[in-house]
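*** Query protein ***
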Amino acid sequence: MRCVLAVAVLLPLAAFADAVPEPDDYRIDQYRAPVPGTLAGGIVVETEEAHALWQAGETAFVDVLPRAPKPENLPEGTIWRDKPRHSIPGAIWLPNVGYGKLADVTHDYFREGLEKATEGDPDHPVLFFCLADCWMSWNAARRALEYGHTRVYWYPDGTDGWTFEDHPTEVVAPEPGY
């Protein structure tokens, strides 16, 4: 009986311990870590909901996975090939806009990408994603809210959750301008 009682008491505590609180500001380091289950002002969606939004075709999907930089010290003549990004079909890829601090040029790039994705309508629904346990998408979704977008979705499982359910992907290229 004591064992059952101990389990009944500890299970809710374990679930609470795993909860990540929503921070007051952007995450600026350790971007691959457990994320909160909330986004103030936005709507958090699971894979089923993200897929339904994608099928409906009325929501802009924005992938914010960072793009690996070309190493500066490659020997002359070395061929550099970017790793292909397999993303949700129809998504626009705006790499590097999910960092906690952005240079002015990156803010401009992000705003221009959002302008294109939403056809200039801040009320147009827009969904942000990256990978599972990636703060980049949380930061980007929060930033879009600060930019004045009103229908912001955040999909924390990103392409990891998407491909786990065997939903289709396609190779995307970064939006020009970065």
User: Anything to note?
Assistant: Residues 36-67+83-178 form a domain with the Oxidized Rhodanese; domain 1 fold (CATH 3.40.250.10). The first strand starts at residue 43 and ends at 44. The chain has a mean pLDDT of 91.
